[in-house]
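B., you asked whether I could sanity-check this one before it goes into the benchmark set. Here's the sequence:
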Amino acid sequence: MSTEGRLLEERRKKVAKLRELGVDPYGERFDDVEPIPSVRARAGDLGLDAGEGREDERARLAGRIVLQRVMGNLIFLTLRDGGGDIQVGLSKRAVREDWPVIKTLDLGDIIGAEGFLGKTKTGEITVWVDRFRLLCKSLHAPPEKWHGLTDVELRYRRRYVDLFSNPEVREVFKARSTIIQAIRDYLLGEAYLEVDTPVLQPIYGGAAARPFTTHHNTLDIDLYLRISPELYLKRLLVGGMERVFEFSRNFRNEGISTQHNPEFTLLELYEAYADYQVMMQRVEGMVAAAIDKLDGVYRRKFKDLELDFTTPWPRHKYADLLREYAGVELSDMGAVRARAAELDIDDSGKDDAVVVNEVFEAAVEPHLMQPAFVYDYPATLCPLTRRHAEDDSLALRFEAYVAGMELGNAYTELNDPDAQEANLSRQLAGQDETMAVKDEDFVLALRYGMPPAGGLGVGVDRLIMVLTNSHSIRDVILFPLQRPSGIDAPFEPKEETGTDV
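And here's what the prediction gave me:
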């Protein structure tokens, strides 16, 4: 029998023993629990000396056992809750009635405990327990050192173990919540209204991406998981909702990488009577709000970079960057296609604008490390965008870049229904299946009149990556998509005595 199988069998025997003792191995309600950081702070404020205790200062807490030291009739446990760790001491004399239950405890068990605050002779803050309750018996032994696992796929696949084993992982997801709430508060403060639009859509649109397809049995129609909420949010502008935003879950049937997950979170917002210059201000404002809420540090480490998020961010024209880093003019397609060949880009059958952008991605993006805006893109790449009045080959569009990644995309929105219909019709006739759709109802909505507007989409997961120094998008998504796997235990645990999770 494997170590895992043997330990599982031993724990099942302890479950049976607990039931013989009349104890429910899976616990019950446990009220008035104080977070461990609060307990530690209170203990620190007492100014206790080593070996001292205060029986009038009590704590009631609950958590998972992550360290266990048995010293005869004295057991020290380290408990971990969602905020931190603390040591608890259990002596046979103080918890005599519960001692048979306490002797069944293993790493990973969840317990409730109450007692007075003190410090051990070594100065460790400790709750000396006189009331105890088992809240959940863990059948699977945790890994001895989760950090020691070399296969990171297992951490993503068993995220529940990753979270309780690695407090720093939990901190990333706490930061994620903080960032999203800070952005929400910023937009609400700018008089935006948060809305919800359909995830199931009869026509996909708003981006160049392959959708996931599903089928509704009752209506007997195919539907698509949205690739973007854009066209529905613009309908709200038509309806007089002048500032709207949505944190939307989107789905794109495409690749997986450190920067891409097929299911991801996108923030989209639209503001009537604004343009893409205003959207630059919105990006700077929301990122600043997130940083201020996190820690107020605008110079932040990401991989081997130090990123400076101080506003205003630099602004660069697309054509200028193409000239500087690719060595070609935007208008010289002969030179652009020659450069594409040098970069091993297959340009056969591709529109000029697509080739230009692939050259830009290969030659320019690796240089866009510091937060910056790149604006005035080739218009044929942007069928939903208004064009420059002086040069209709350019679109009033920008992309926000950080660490070589596109972080956001914004337009001065096209609200001319005839121009929009013509653009969508050309798109429909193109060879790219990801854009071969035409939403007639959206064009109809524009005919009723949509105010001039600015629109913005921000990749929330990527923003969280750079603000938390997480090197993969899967580090900031709780349950990233992975290949199916069996449910075998993801590790072979070692013996448990005195083991630190």
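One thing to flag: Residues 14 and 38 are 33 Å apart (CA to CA). Otherwise nothing jumped out at me.
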